[in-house]
Amino acid sequence: MIDILKFRLGYGNQTVAFPDGPPRFPARFRGRPVVDPSRCEAGCAGCAGCAEACPTEAILDPGTATMRVDLGRCTFCGDCVTACPPGAIRFTGDHRLAARTREALVVSRDAPVLAEALDGELRRVLGRSLKLRQVSAGGCSGCEAELNASGNIQFDVGRFGVQFVASPRHADGLVITGPVTENMRLALRQTWEAVPAPRIVIAVGACAISGGPFAGSPVTCGGAAAALDGIPVDLYVPGCPPHPITFLDGILRLLGRLK
């Protein structure tokens, strides 16, 4: 037992300093993309090679002055970077990607994407805790794994009062992953209805936001918003899958805990 205690003390504190300090990311981490249309126009004259390379049609108006990237569709694969002239599209290390609206996920300039907080009354009802029921609606388990990692010792989302619960009856809202297959549509709707009001919806990952690589498939609904049909999504967390810090950043901004 003494040896175990010594080992544990030597292990130190493994929880990231975020949000009080800089988060740690691996060297291969890809954050928010930035578009420089001037390099694209000079180098490829609107050849649209980046759009052809993109597997999810995330590049809008390729090769023009209004070229943009839709984070809700982007899988952060990097194929567009290799297909474009140097510097036309680059991925930054900025983890701030979550947004309150679908339109805010369409980016071009080098500026962070910052989710706005819920209205004051809803934040008052939720208090300083947030209980979430996660629903995997046809996901590949990538986003699900990262959400699971958000609760481990390194990221510890529980220190902010955020917990994943087993029953929608105990939840304040849903976290949805996957493109929502037709076989999961009814189950998702019933889970939503089982959550006591007021309730929120969080779409995590490209599949839950736009359908991802499965957009247009006849056996999927094209994401959470389309599947819930009229029920608004309160927070979009892009990525394929999103990093746990991106999820934490979005949640804390949604709760008004980050300015």
Automatic annotation (TrEMBL):
GO molecular-function annotation terms?
Answer: 4 iron, 4 sulfur cluster binding; metal ion binding
Is the keyword Iron-sulfur assigned to this protein?
yes
Tell me the superkingdom of the source: Bacteria
**Mind telling me which InterPro entries this protein's record contains?**
4Fe4S_Fe-S-bd, 4Fe4S_Fe_S_CS, Complex_I_20kDa-like, NADH_UbQ_OxRdtase-like_20kDa
**What are the UniProt keywords, alphabetically?**
4Fe-4S, Iron, Iron-sulfur, Metal-binding, Ubiquinone
Q: Where's the 4Fe-4S ferredoxin-type domain?
A: 31-63, 65-94
Cofactors: [4Fe-4S] cluster
Q: Name one Pfam family in it.
A: Fer4_9
The parts of the chain that form a coiled coil are none
So where does this one cross the membrane? none
User: Does Repeat count among this protein's keywords?
Assistant: no
Which family is this sequence assigned to?
Belongs to the FrhG family. Belongs to the complex I 20 kDa subunit family.
Record-given protein name: NADH ubiquinone oxidoreductase 20 kDa subunit
Q: Which organism is it from?
A: Anaeromyxobacter dehalogenans (strain ATCC BAA-258 / DSM 21875 / 2CP-1)
Lineage per the UniProt record: Bacteria, Pseudomonadati, Myxococcota, Myxococcia, Myxococcales
